[in-house]
Amino acid sequence: MAFKGMLKDEDIAAALKHCAAADSFNHKEFFAKVGLAGKSTEDLKKAFYFVDQDKSGFIEEDELKLFLQTFSAGARALTDKETKVFLAAGDADGDGMIGVDGNQITFTHFYQTSNYVLDPIQLAK
């Protein structure tokens, strides 16, 4: 498992169970349940590169769709709606990707958006 030593297996299992149904994924809740909320910037970088499957330095929509499978190979893919909401939460510069920009760590916002609220209906338009 990619997160061995960083996250607890039982927290991962509980977080995945919590969002097992389609359209039930909420990134803020997932990060809190799995133990990523409040992690150091260094740990968040490690988590980012686990999700960045092609090692491009960016998390693209197709990689984000398979986000849960980063935690468990048998996990479901995110729905298109969930993926779009999730991407919008982390895409600080509007380029359609989540990335690291020089010294500015865009993905920190992605993991630590406790007060960030998105309207999925607006995103679907």
TrEMBL record:
Binding residues for Ca(2+) 2: D91, D93, D95
Concerning InterPro entries, the annotation shows: EF-hand-dom_pair (IPR011992), EF_Hand_1_Ca_BS (IPR018247), EF_hand_dom (IPR002048), Parvalbumin (IPR008080)
GO MF term set: calcium ion binding
Where does the secretion signal sit in this chain?
Answer: none
Domain of life, source organism: Eukaryota
The record's listing under Pfam families reads: EF-hand_7
SMART domains, from UniProt? EFh
List the GO terms this entry assigns under cellular component, sorted alphabetically: cytoplasm
Gene3D superfamilies recorded: EF-hand
- The UniProt record lists the EF-hand domain at 39-74
Which keywords accompany this UniProt record? Calcium, Metal-binding, Muscle protein, Repeat
**Chain positions recorded as Ca(2+) 1 binding sites:** D52, D54, S56, F58, E63
* Repeat as UniProt keyword: yes
Family the entry assigns = Belongs to the parvalbumin family.
Which PANTHER family does the protein's record reference? PARVALBUMIN, PARVALBUMIN ALPHA
Task: Summarize the protein's role.
Answer: In muscle, parvalbumin is thought to be involved in relaxation after contraction. It binds two calcium ions.
Protein name as it appears in the record: Parvalbumin
Which organism encodes this protein? Oncorhynchus tshawytscha (Chinook salmon)
This protein's gene is called: LOC112224452
